[in-house]
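Mods, move this if it's the wrong board.
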Amino acid sequence: MRRRDFAAGLLLTAAVRAARAQQPAKQHRIAIVVAAGPIAGISDRGVRVWQAFFAELRRLGDVEGQNLAVDRYSGRGRPESYADLAREVVNSSPDVIITGGTAIAHAARAATATVPIVWVGGDDPIQAGLAMSLARPGHNLTGVHIFAGNEIWGKSLQILKETVPSASKVAFLTTRTVVEDGEQLREASRRLEISLIPMLLEEANPAQIQDAFAAPAQGRPDAIVVSATGELLPYRQLIVELVEKSGLPAMYAWREYVEAGGLMAYASDVGELSRRMAEDVHEILNGAKPGDIPIYRPTKYELVINLKAASALGLTLPAALLALADEVIE
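Not the wrong board. Structure tokens:
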């Protein structure tokens, strides 16, 4: 009798284990909110930042369509809609919200004090009021700061000056939701005795971008710098084409612009940033508090130069500058 009971117990244990093995893994839900551009780009086939993000999530075991659901949203470059959009996202009850840009992050923070937020942006998170410190941001937010400091803009302008030694006036294409980029660039331009001419967009959309290039500049600039804001990245092909028509050399903050035909970019390693974003999301989904996760700042930057674009502008790039480049596209 005891032997039969023991055998029955073994069978019951095996059945329970089999039932547990057949149970689907818990599915988490994340919401990705970008400031502008189509949501179709937020995928493993989209721009490099999202390709690397989803690849790292898969490596960590978070796979869309299996144990992960992904909702995608875009602010369409209209800052006045961000607050309503953030409330819509929060009401969908995601486990984590990923925000592209500081303005979207502020809207999300205003909409919820409990749903974890992973932010990526160019503004200093402390000065922008998103974090109490980089080591312990506090509240319900952590993320990735795409610039290591003012010296990055200084280096970008210095490279541009080496490319065009006569440049004394530089136009800066950005949106009104980006504050820190402009302040850092102005500080760097003063050190290099370069006048900065703003090309400010009220909204990030093709019509406004075209108008900015069509409007007469306040004194013709000698070169253009394009902001690192993610609001402009979806329109990189249009921006590169308009810059090309202007006949001016340009410095970009993402290599995607150079791959689209732009002259040069001094940019942080997108793969590195994306992996850190994915790691933050993974940790939070597994119980970590976002306010305890340090905000990451990049340690690696790369200079990418497009020789075809240089040739079209009639530029002869210094040999020392070409030697400094991490990649030269021919």
